[in-house]
Structure formats: C-alpha cells, structure tokens
Amino acid sequence: MEDFTALPDLASRAFGGGVVHANDEFFAAAGHLVLPSAPGHAPKTFDHKGQVYDGWETRRRRSPGHDFAVVRLGAPGVIHGVDIDTAFFTGNFPPFASLDAVALPGYPGPEELAEAAWSEVLPRAELKGDSSNVFPIGDTRRFTHVRLNIFPDGGVARLRVHGEVVPDPDLLPKVFDVAAAEHGGRVVDCSNMFYGHPQRMLMPGLALNMGDGWETSRRRDDANDWVLVQLAAPARLRFADLDTSHFKGNAPGWAGLTGITAEGDQVELLPRTALRPDTPHRFPLLKGPEVTHARLDIYPDGGMARLRLHGRADRAHLWARMRQCLEP
C-alpha cells in the first residue's frame, strides 16, 4: 500500500486548515482535529465538563443520528489517504467513522456546506481506540472540504488528510514560491535527515525553533549533504531564500543551488556561497531555463530552517493539473 502518510496533511492548521462547523463539541473543541502537533494527554486533569482531552469529543448521544465535523482544507488537493487518530480516547472513542468530501469555490459557510453535493470518499469503517486509524482514499478528484462523520458519538484526537496539493492558478501571482508545500512543492530525495525531515523547510511561516527544519548528522567524510525538491510547476527561478534561523553552532558553512530541466540537464542557479548562522539570506539566482526540480547542496552538513524558491511558473502546467482532477 502507498505510504500516503509521508504526503502533506492538507487539513493541517499549519496550512490554514480549520473546522468550519461541528454539530456537537460539548466535551472538547473540534478545532483540535487539525492541530499540527501530536496529541497529548494529562490523566486526571479535569475542568467543569470532565477530563480534559486534546481532541474533539461530543456528548453521549441519546437520540438517533451521528455526530460530524466539517473541515476546510488549508491546501486543497487530491486526497490519498486519511488518519483518524483516536489517541488517548479509550472508553469514549467512536466505533465507526466515514468521510465525505466536496470542492467549492470561495469561502462557504455552514449553510452553503450543508446544501452542497458531498461525495463519500471513505465508507463507514471500523475504528480502534487510542490508535492511528489509517485508510487509503481512491478518489482522484480535487477537494476543498471534508466532513468527518463519527457513529454515533465520541472522541477523535486528530484528523490527518494526506494528499497532493493542487492550487487554483487563478489565486496565484505571476511570481510565487514554487517550492512551497502549500503550492505543491515537495521533497523527493535527500542525502540525510537524521535530525529533521527536509519537507519542513517548505512549510509556511517562519521556523519556530531548531526542530522545525532540516538537519543532518555530522559528516565525517569529504562529501556534502543535499536535498532535491520537485517544484509545484516548471518555473524560471529568480530568487532563493536560504534561512538558517535557530541554527547557530550547526548551520552549513556554504550552500549552492542547481536546477534540473525536464530533459534532465543541470543548470547552476547559485554557485557555492557562504552562509551565516541564524540568518535569513536572500540571493538573486543566475538566469536560466525553465526547471522542474531544484537541488540544494549544503557544505558540508548542518541545518536549514526554510527554503524558498521564487519564480515564474508555467501556467499551462498548473491549469492542466487542475483540469486533470476535476473528474473522477
């Protein structure tokens, strides 16, 4: 089975995802579902409604029906799989769940979403308590919202909606960060990720700390570390942001950038250049042809908080991908 859990979480608050509506959140707010952090738990911690949970929890249902929460995806796209995580919910988890999805323009509210034509992408499935419940999704359409249905009630810690980001070209400027995860950029290979996965470099916003970036182990040879990024679309790159924030005694000494064309040719974009610790750097790039991938080389090793690659993307490619996932 495809390891879809390595793909971005389209629903994550880190991308701007949020809960638009929940029919019940008596014991714990549904907004916890999309938090990027792992769920935590402090036993025997009570407030006026009972044990405090880091998740969404509804009251015990005494009437027919089921509970649900509607999530706006922070990054619309094609869903490859979901993780309905019931961590720390033991005697109060829902025994079953299903997932619906829909693609809507703009920013619909609860009333518009209630009237939308939803598609079931995950039929009613059995859940285990205090567990990561992962399910593949076979629908290849692009969606903007999902609806988690739990039967009949209970608690879910997190909802991870893993998939491929497909941005709306109408909402992108002529020049944008084509490496950004929120636009569809993704890491496809790297030399080392001992202390931190390089995909973190492509996440929105500033790095929170040294753990919120890519960091390699210490090299004891004459080689160097590198990461390969597939861009959101073929693009002519113009500027690069190489941010070593928080990396003080472990920043790379130097870095360089190489573009790779659709034909496999390599183009130097940034020659080996000195970096400073704990510093956001911006460099103009050498003018070159349109590239589909960019390789960041760091010398000899170390940590990088964020990587931004600003360029002019191939709009025809963006529109072709958009049209491709409009139909099942």
TrEMBL record:
InterPro entries: Allantoicase, Allantoicase_dom, Galactose-bd-like_sf. It is an enzyme of class 3 (hydrolase). It catalyses: allantoate + H2O = (S)-ureidoglycolate + urea. Pathway: Nitrogen metabolism; (S)-allantoin degradation; (S)-ureidoglycolate from allantoate (aminidohydrolase route): step 1/1. GO terms for biological process: allantoin catabolic process; purine nucleobase metabolic process. Pfam families: Allantoicase (PF03561). One of its GO terms (molecular function) is allantoicase activity. HAMAP family: Allantoicase (MF_00813). This is Probable allantoicase. It comes from Actinoplanes cyaneus. The lineage of its organism: Bacteria, Bacillati, Actinomycetota, Actinomycetes, Micromonosporales. The gene is alc.
